[in-house]
Design goal:
single chain; 302 residues; two-stranded antiparallel sheet
């Protein structure tokens, strides 16, 4: 099949398209309701653009020719995962979706669900468990365990054989990525526990640990997954070359994205220190020492 034919291979999963459309509609409704509450003050445009851009990236990752090629090339499978984890998740969170989408849900439905949850107790338990997981250490551990687990040979090969497992893999990657980026991206409903300098260190640690997996793919001398059995591999790539390219895609772009996050949080942290320094100087009390006259020692004239 030629390159042009691959470009025309767009898939259409009704569940994915419906979920993306529902999120877009609820966000739009919530934005309008919040504007009314704020007397015409809209949500920042860059946040709105960020959220919708995140949804577009999810659509491209799961419904475009990238998804079709991911069944034949490990490198495109890796592109698909990175779009979900490193691009879509942070873009969606920068759109501050929590409060906005909640406002977009019809009031009667909100009252019904929340009231039922409060009476039956599951809402309290859900909030309790989310509060325990929404912490930098558990979030990083969950993200990294999920990342490594899905690249275990058995599970990874299973995603290539079963569409339902493949879809669940995508859901896990997006969900754990949202939990991870919640630890460093400010939102109205969820505020990170870390300061800006701590967020910079957090991103470096997580990025370094995730890149160990990329190194494994780059330096491995044998194909690891069932991609080795593909006949007439697209673009004339070998199985080992495809795997090394996948490792490089996971290594270099992720390294630059995490480095960009590190630089951003360092800049914000330094900006906070620069603003705090003059304020601290103004508020610091000074002890005024009276000037002594010549010959005045210890308060006595000599």
């Amino acid at each position: 099949m030629t390159t042009m034919n691959w470009l025309l291979q767009w898939s259409f999963d009704p569940g994915i398209v419906a979920a993306i459309a529902l999120a877009a509609i609820l966000y739009w409704r919530g934005r309008r309701r919040l504007s009314d509450v704020r007397r015409g003050v809209p949500l920042e445009r860059w946040r709105v653009a960020s959220f919708y851009a995140g949804l577009v990236v999810v659509l491209l990752a799961l419904e475009s020719p990238i998804d079709v090629l991911s069944a034949y090339l490990f490198s495109f499978h890796m592109i698909q995962h990175l779009l979900l984890i490193m691009v879509a998740a942070p873009l969606i969170l920068m759109g501050d979706p929590g409060v906005t989408i909640m406002r977009g849900v019809p009031l009667s439905l909100r009252r019904s669900v929340l009231g039922s949850g409060a009476r039956q107790g599951w809402l309290h338990h859900l909030g309790h468990w989310f509060g325990r997981l929404n912490h930098p250490v558990p979030a990083a551990v969950i993200f990294l365990v999920d990342l490594y687990l899905w690249h275990w040979n058995f599970l990874f090969n299973l995603t290539l054989q079963n569409d339902a497992v493949h879809a669940f893999e995508h859901l896990c990657f997006l969900g754990t990525a949202l939990l991870l980026w919640t630890q460093v991206i400010d939102q109205r409903a969820l505020h990170p526990r870390l300061g800006h300098f701590q967020r910079a260190i957090f991103t470096v640690i997580v990025g370094g640990l995730s890149n160990l997996l990329a190194m494994y793919f780059v330096f491995s001398t044998v194909p690891l997954y069932t991609y080795a059995r593909v006949i007439n591999r697209p673009f004339g790539m070998t199985a080992l070359g495809d795997q090394q390219l996948a490792g490089g895609i996971m290594w270099v772009p992720v390294l630059f994205l995490f480095a960009g996050a590190f630089a951003t949080f360092m800049y914000l942290g330094l900006g906070e220190d620069a603003e705090a320094a003059p304020q601290a100087a103004v508020e610091t009390p000074y002890r005024v020492i009276p000037r002594r006259a010549p010959g005045d020692v210890g308060g006595r004239h000599v």
